[in-house]
Design a protein that fits this description.
Blueprint: H1 2-19, H2 24-44, H3 56-69, H4 79-98, H5 125-138, H6 141-153, H7 157-161, E1 168-170, E2 175-179, E3 187-190, H8 193-203, H9 224-238, H10 245-257, H11 265-272, H12 283-286, H13 294-302
Antiparallel strand pairs: 1-2, 2-3
Amino acid sequence: MRDLQMTQMFVSFLQHLDEKGLDPRTIDNYKATWSKFGKWMIQSDPELRDPGLATQKDIADYKRYMLDHGGRNGNPAKPSTMQLTFVHLNAIFNFFATRKCIPDNPVGPVQKPPAARRTPKWLTKNEHNKLLREVRKGGSKREYAIIVVLLNVGLRAHELCDLPATELTLNSRSGKVYIRGKGYKDREVPLNSEARSALESYLGDRPLDEPYVFSSQRSKKMSVRGVQHIVEKYRERTKIEHLNCHSLRHTFGHDLATANPPVPLDRVATLMGHFKEDGSPNIEMTMIYTTPGVEDLEAAVESISWT
């Protein structure tokens, strides 16, 4: 009965995440972490029915396993992977302990993996321009609009695909998109002139009754994989190795945070959709965009040059 109850508790944990308004992809990441940990636990003890019965020693052993063989092809796990794994496990077991299903959180006393150095993943100004020139040269109006919106509005790929035509407002000198989230996480993002121009050009060739802003030849709603495929195509053409949907969104956040004058971080967090559970801007999440990149460091050094 105790093992069955633990299985039910993990389902309750997932429901808890959903009620908090976490993105479905984030919830899937928790599932993946739990699945990997569970498989390792069963391999370590074939008689164990549920990884929720793990002890502090199990957690410490799993940490050593990840340090030695927890990555791909039996290689050590990356620091970022280890850090995220322990964030997930700590949250899961803390939930179990809070619900009195286990006596305590076995992850708590174990020394956490060192924090991974977060390397900036945005485009430099030169990369930004190189990408736009390549899309203008060889892309369709739809592809150009997608790239410009990701760069200038900071939408996640699934937010771009899920954007209904009714949530887009375009006027001659203003525009905005309304992004719906769970709980208090709705946000309204203004459109600058570049985004408005690209959208107007793209939408001008489409029927007025399309339900979503971005569609494909096969569907009235663009798929996330379809957007990723477009970005991957231009990664190959431009040879910008870190070009992906996430780096385009990060470029938007970094450009805001490092503008002259810089945009206040509470506004950056709101535009990016970084919110706490109570709906207030999560400035801590947004601090990553203030991390200097190579181009920022070069400019800083050049600023004190005598020539």
